[in-house]
Amino acid sequence: MIQNCCNITRKNKICKRKDGKIFSLPRRFTKKQCKKQKGFSMRASCAPFNQCGGKISRQCIAKLFPDKVVKNNKVKGIVNFKQKDKNLIINYNIENLKDGQHGFHIHKCGDITKGCSSGCEHFNPFGKNHGSLTSKDSHAGDLGNIISKNGKSFGKIITDKISIIPGSKNSIIGRMIIVHQDRDDLGLGNNEESLKTGNAGKRLSCGIIGIKSGF
Hints:
SOD-like_Cu/Zn_dom_sf; 34% strand; 2% helix; copper ion binding; 215 residues; globular; 1 helix; Immunoglobulin-like; SOD_Cu_Zn_dom; two-stranded antiparallel sheet
């Protein structure tokens, strides 16, 4: 029996639309479009297939620019985000950083009217204290420290605390990612500021997280 497109599983190879037409899987669609008599568009920019049982990847990107408030600051880079099931894979490549550790965070606001300073506080939808990437009591936007060597920092971070799924409480789409001047003490600094920012210092470079072209 061919199932309706809102009741499928990963094992299904074909699916039946509301208008009775049959097509091969996977396809991208939303539940709302699925329920319409006319079905849905092949090129629809819509929710991931896993909302109806299958799965596709979703990707975002942020281009980081130096904050002009910091003198002689040339820190810049690219950060890519890829959703894989519950995990978000973050790949970063940042240049012109002073060697050492630097705090790396998602901030609440995607506002660049005043540079990185208008990015608001750390993204913290669950009302926790600042901490490390792996600690249970930490902001969703706490990504820990990145390490710069010979002026460059690149690597991968995997976390399930944040996502790029539109409408989810922990979605970071439209928010700001920031590289800080100093090392993040991960909430272990024994002072009030440590539990808010990790004493990571000035905001060197930032970018707005947006949906990547083609996704």
